[in-house]
Amino acid sequence: MAEATVVRSEGSDPGQASDDLVTREDDGAVAILRVNRPKALNALDAATLRRIGERIAEVGADDAVRALVLTGSGTKAFVAGADIAALRDMNPEQASAFSRLGGGVFRQLERLGKPTLAAINGFALGGGLELALGCDVLLAADHAKFGLPEVTLGVIPGFGGTQRMARLIGANAARLWVMSGEIFSAQEALRLGLVYSLHEPEALLPAAIAWAHKMASRGPLAVAAAKSVIDRGLDLGLDAAIELESQAFGQCFATADQREGMDAFLAKRRPEFRGQ
Ligand code: DAK
């Protein structure tokens, strides 16, 4: 079945250019992507999901970008979920195709060979929380609200939320929040380890960008290898995961960045990593 026939883009605000659904601005080596559908609290319809995918691909291909921060437009919402108006009339095939579209985009985000941070500036519900879960590190504003409320709509999380929540906060807490569909506070998210830190709303983006710059200044191949080994290792037994780390450690020694990093240390100067 052709994707275009089943994954519709209803829900995008009339007159809003698809380009504008996800804006990009760069701060040096850090790209900042904002989901930008303020009238629907940045809810994800098919057009917005596709645009996120295009932006991620763009960032991945841009050698000048070494880290990504993902946030939502405005101060009220990061992303308030999948677009319920677009979901409502889907048949099972269309829903599966929508799920595959979102799941594919979130996996693309997760596999991006550059560090990614979610700056959660408000509601992160349903597909919005699932989008944040595709990032490497989650930071939040202290007024943010979290939840996977899909069961309140008669469905379940369809973009990997059940799996990533359980991996990140453990099965007990994941079951509680997924099966109740309740919304929870930023303070609870911090307590659960779902987010790394909370910030005053105006301090959130600067904090995320500051972490992104730190990561962007390190050896990019090493950062990408570390990300990959942590992610892949989580799905393996400890022996296999440690072997994966050993292999990746060895591969670092085939790079110019390894020599540059160690030469710079010994010469007491800042390294100039070229990602080679
Ligand atoms: N979709 C569409 N529009 C939304 C929206 C959403 N998720 N969230 C908010 N909006 C719209 C509202 O309809 C409203 O539009 P207008 O009436 O102004 O036209 C506007 O944004 C402002 O929202 P409110 O007026 O409701 O603002 P409040 O401050 O009163 O409330 C809220 C904020 C976030 C508590 C409330 O809007 C809310 O409860 N929103 C829905 C949150 C939610 O349930 N999110 C989860 C969506 S379900 C799957 C694939 C994916 C998924 C599941 C399955 N498969 C294909 C299997 C994922 C599902 C979800 O994410």
What is the fold-level CATH name, i.e. the topology of the largest domain?
2-enoyl-CoA Hydratase, Chain A, domain 1
Give the class from helix and strand content and strand pairing.
alpha/beta
Alpha-carbon distance between the two ends? 41 Å
CATH homologous superfamily of the largest domain, by name? 2-enoyl-CoA Hydratase, Chain A, domain 1
Strand order of the largest sheet: 1-2-3-5-7-10
**Shape call:** globular
Description of the molecule:
- With 276 residues, the chain is α/β, with parallel strands linked by helices.
- It folds into two domains: 2-216, 2-enoyl-CoA Hydratase, Chain A, domain 1 (Alpha-Beta Complex), CATH 3.90.226.10; 220-267, Lyase 2-enoyl-coa Hydratase, Chain  A, domain 2.
- 49% of the residues lie in helices and 16% in strands.
- The chain has helices at residues 3-6, 46-61, 84-87, 92-111, 127-133, 161-169, 171-180, 186-192, 201-217, 220-233, 238-252, 256-266; strands at 22-27, 30-35, 67-72, 77-79, 116-120, 123-125, 137-141, 145-147, 183-185, 197-199.
- The chain has a six-stranded mixed β-sheet, with helices on both faces. It has a four-stranded mixed β-sheet with strand order 4-6-8-9.
- Helix 2 runs parallel beside helix 4 (92-111), helix 6 crosses helix 7 and helix 10 (220-233) packs antiparallel against helix 11 (238-252).
- It is globular.
- 4-(N,N-dimethylamino)cinnamoyl-COA is lined by residues 40-41, 43, 80-85, 95, 98-99, 102, 123, 125-127, 149-150, 153, 155, 157-159.
